[in-house]
Design goal:
By secondary structure, this protein is α/β, with parallel strands linked by helices. The chain is built from 10 helices and 9 strands. Helix 2 packs parallel to helix 9.
């Protein structure tokens, strides 16, 4: 009789993370939110699920989303003002920075060479590299030649690297040698929360849990795009495996410094 109510209940299970460090809620810059109102609705749900802070990470992916760092910073500044003016009585997380999710594609070298890589830092100034941590993603379809070289080059240029949602790449398996090499090099991994609830399919779900159990994962992110994702996040708050995982593992989300 009460199963329906249980499935629709929203619990703030993500409060130990404090911060969602991967979401696409800056409107009309990529395949994420399409309006201020949609972003506000989504953020309200994220607060209900336990997030106190969020970092916006629009796609930088040439030629599909050829965003520029200065333009994104300006849009973020205006968006913060619009949110403050229009949120009303909504209880939403605090926006603490804008960085980016940079796809290793044809335009990536230009972003790196022109100093447009927007980064995170740890609260502890003694941790991390001089230039901070850059969130990168690979193709979701096929492996691009030279990925390992690009990651190594980033590290040699003084960046730490966070690889977004490795569980979603079909060319990596649960105990992949390439990922293990990345870990030996000091690459951070970020798993999508919705992967843990099966949103991207059984294979991604299985790998997400196994990467965490391998001790390979430092960050969790919602990779939030729109209201459909928000509903999926609500659903995930009743997943017993995720609840148990959050009790067992400490993630680095809460240790990120407030950015620009």
């Amino acid at each position: 009789m009460f199963d329906f109510l249980k499935k629709n209940r929203v619990s703030p299970i993500y409060s130990p993370l404090v911060t969602d460090m991967h979401c696409h809620l800056l409107p009309l810059v990529d395949d994420g939110s399409k309006s201020l109102e949609e972003s506000l609705e989504v953020m309200e749900t994220m607060k209900q699920c336990g997030f106190k802070e969020i970092r916006l990470t629009p796609h930088f992916c040439y030629p599909r989303f050829p965003n520029k760092a200065d333009d994104i910073r300006e849009r973020y500044k205006n968006f913060c003002a619009e949110v403050e003016a229009n949120k009303g009585t909504r209880d939403i997380p605090r926006m603490t920075s804008v960085t980016g999710e940079f796809q290793v594609s044809d335009g990536f070298d230009e972003y790196m060479n022109s100093g447009q890589l927007m980064t995170y830092r740890f609260t502890d100034p003694k941790r991390g590299s001089e230039k901070g941590m850059v969130l990168i993603e690979f193709s979701l379809h096929q492996k691009r030649m030279g990925l390992e070289d690009t990651v190594f080059k980033l590290q040699m240029e003084g960046y730490d690297v966070i690889l977004a949602h490795p569980e979603r790449y079909p060319y990596y398996d649960a105990h992949d040698d390439n990922l293990e090499q990345f870990k030996e090099q000091g690459v951070y991994l970020q798993v999508n929360i919705l992967s843990l609830d099966g949103f991207y399919g059984e294979s991604a779900q299985k790998k997400a849990f196994e990467y965490i159990e391998n001790g390979w994962v430092e960050f969790l992110g919602t990779d939030m795009h729109n209201l459909m994702y928000a509903q999926a996040l609500k659903h995930s708050t009743n997943n017993k495996k995720i609840i148990k995982l959050l009790d067992k593992y400490e993630f680095e989300n809460k240790n990120l410094a407030i950015g620009e």
